[in-house]
Amino acid sequence: MARGKDIDGSISVPTFYGKELRWKREAAGLSLEAFLEGSFYGKTYLSDIEHGERRMPLDLARHADRVLGTDSFFERRCEDVRKARKSSHAEYFADVLELEKHALEFEEWDPMLIPGPLQLEPYIRAVVLSAYPAEPEGSLAAKVADRRSRAWLYEDKDSPESWIVLHEAVLLQPILPPNEMAEQLAHIAEVLRHRRAFAQLVPRKFGAHPFMMGMARFMTFADAPPVMYTEGMYSGQLIDDPVLVKQYSKAYGRLRAAALDPEASLNLIEQAAEDYRNGKQPHALE
């Protein structure tokens, strides 16, 4: 459906910001395409920003200031828009939440944990409390609900295609009692059987491999350059430099080459779930 011409800038900070961008662009006599010349972005992406539906990346804000002669106005307002998008998620994760709504494909690696959108409530609670042991029950429940609301990324029938690489340690080092761990792994297997997401396991016997130092998540888009996100316990970093993202992407390819194939990996996840269900510890790959 075509959008209306008018934008109600009173709805939110992002729509106010977007409306100002459109006003400046049209006052300069620039079409979407003309404005974007010299950038990496598409006109749908820019239109979404003008309607307050996407956050403007810093490099595009700087591009806007150069093209429109706005004396760093849009660069300075980037932070205001980011802060306006509140949830129980950490502030450093806000940009990722915005971007994942528009991604065509996800590629993820985690050496120790199940990816957030695949985590069930007991697993989420355990992860949150490990980092914030004094978290009040109310905010803990909000964090659980917000994380489960992202399940669509892997579970919806129309979700983006995803590739997930996990370390064998995710199966062998349970953070839940056996019955709950069995349910969590069985849930992953069920999602994988729907074939919107594919998983590979990296056996610990394989020794050195790329990304041993932390998690990585890649997102690709139809109208913007790919990005990579990496995270620690209390911080996260979104990397959008094209050269660096390409270098990380090549390393991810080498990581996948070191992992087991998807069917063998899925069988091992199902077997680990069965072992926990029967009160057994899954065996490490020899």
Automatic annotation (TrEMBL):
Gene3D superfamilies with a match to the protein in the record: lambda repressor-like DNA-binding domains
Domain of life of the organism encoding this protein: Bacteria
SUPFAM superfamilies associated with the record: lambda repressor-like DNA-binding domains
Domain HTH cro/C1-type, chain residue ranges per copy: 20-75
Protein name as annotated: Helix-turn-helix transcriptional regulator
Species, as recorded: Streptomyces nogalater
